[in-house]
TrEMBL record:
InterPro entries: Protohaem_IX_farnesylTrfase, UbiA_prenyltransferase, UbiA_prenylTrfase_CS, UbiA_sf. This is Protoheme IX farnesyltransferase. It is an enzyme of class 2 (transferase). The chain crosses the membrane at residues 26-43, 49-71, 121-139, 220-237, 243-260, 281-302. PROSITE patterns: UBIA. Carbon 2 of the heme B porphyrin ring is defined according to the Fischer nomenclature. One of its GO terms (biological process) is heme O biosynthetic process. GO terms for cellular component: plasma membrane. Pathway: Porphyrin-containing compound metabolism; heme O biosynthesis; heme O from protoheme: step 1/1. It comes from Aquimixticola soesokkakensis. It catalyses: heme b + (2E,6E)-farnesyl diphosphate + H2O = Fe(II)-heme o + diphosphate. Its EC number is 2.5.1.141. Interacts with CtaA.
Length: 321
């Protein structure tokens, strides 16, 4: 094989490259929250419809990831973490990612609407729009509040799942939205603390770049403290049970403890252990959200088998809009 054909061969896109455009790792947790939203909602959904609805959310989420990679390929090429992605590494053309993103967006929303209802499909369409246009094209390059406002995109999926099952929006689904929405800043800023040089090099105005790490540490603590009441407010609704109560109390105490530790750290300490505590806090953030939604799912199953009653406090808060 000549050098030229070897280079061309290396640049050929495989299935894995197209799959990578869909950001499967990040989307796995997003899709899980949608599944929980659907499972904990009142009423029953045929398992096939439920599976199909979640598949549509997965495809829609993936589509928004492809649109993000299409628009952000310049930034991705500069950042070490993202430089090997299919577009900056030259294996997939930008136009291909755009076409794939648009086609899958249209397909997933239409299929979700036909299989369930148009409230769920409308929410999915809005979520894709919010991530691809509002966050990616606008907020990300403009303001250090990018991920605070943009975080709404990642918080809609439990509402989509709930709407797929009920056709509506409710206090419970809004609280699941708020849980994810308030969780996003500590989740992302922890990562930004140890990935700051990437964002700096790419000129992305993340809080660590515009205001420095000290201010970011303060913001992580503030948002972690503000998150806890929302996590605990779910206890007042009918979807929470004893498992959720245990998880919410323990995990919020641990998350706050971690955030206090992050706040107290000096940059010299962080440099000395290569941001080990910040990396741990980021991993813990993923576990935090996964466990909250898992607990809601377990409580729903226990309730389904009549092993527990409705809500920890009898479901004081609730109701469909
Ligand atoms: C604006 C909102 C968000 C931003 C800016 C953000 C940013 C990030 C970034 C930059 C990473 C590292 C990804 C990588 O290494 O390629 C990451 C990882 C991750 N994020 Fe987020 N995130 C956001 C919201 C969410 C939401 C809502 C969820 C789920 C509900 C989520 C789930 C995850 C997961 C599961 C990972 C780990 C992926 C892996 O293991 O590679 N993120 N996030
Ligand atoms: C339709 C649907 C279910 C959508 C959910 C999409 C969504 C908002 C997911 C979480 C957000 C996310 C992947 C942010 C990554 O930020 P970034 O794009 O700045 O990260 P990067 O630097 O890794 O590209």
């Amino acid at each position: 094989m000549s050098d030229l054909s070897l280079m061309e061969y290396e640049k050929d896109a495989g299935f894995g490259d197209y799959f990578a455009l869909l950001k499967p790792r990040v989307m796995s947790l997003v899709v899980f929250t949608a599944l929980v939203g659907l499972v904990v909602a009142p009423g029953t959904v045929h398992p096939f419809i439920a599976f199909f609805a979640i598949l549509c959310v997965a495809i829609g989420g993936g589509a928004s990831g492809a649109l993000n990679m299409w628009y952000d390929s310049d930034i991705d090429a500069v950042m070490k973490r993202t430089a090997a992605r299919p577009i900056p590494s030259g294996r997939i053309e930008r136009g291909e990612a755009l076409s794939l993103g648009l086609a899958l967006s249209g397909f997933s929303c239409a299929m979700l609407g036909l299989a369930t209802n148009w409230v769920a499909a409308g929410l999915l369409a809005f979520t894709i729009f919010f991530y691809a246009v509002i966050y990616t094209m606008w907020l990300k390059r403009w303001t250090p509040q990018n991920i605070v406002i943009g975080g709404a995109a990642g918080a809609f999926p439990p509402m989509i799942g709930w709407a797929a099952a009920t056709g509506g929006i409710s206090v419970e689904s809004v609280l699941m939205f708020m849980l994810t929405f308030m969780w996003t800043p500590p989740h992302f800023w922890a990562l930004a603390l140890f990935m700051n040089s990437d964002y700096d090099a790419a000129g992305v105005p993340m809080l660590t770049v515009t205001h420095g790490r000290r201010v970011t540490r303060k913001h992580i603590l503030a948002y972690t403290l503000a998150l806890a009441p929302f996590a605990l407010a779910i206890l007042l609704t009918s979807i929470a049970g004893p498992v959720y109560a245990f998880v919410a109390v323990v995990m919020n105490l641990l998350f706050i403890k971690g955030a206090v530790q992050i706040y107290r750290r000096s940059e010299a300490q962080a440099e000395a252990d290569k941001y080990a505590v910040e990396r741990k806090f980021f991993r813990f953030s993923l576990f935090y959200l996964f466990l909250h939604f898992s607990a809601l799912m377990i409580d729903a199953l226990l309730r389904g088998y009549d092993l527990i009653g409705t809500g920890v406090f009898g479901g004081l808060l609730g109701g469909t809009f």
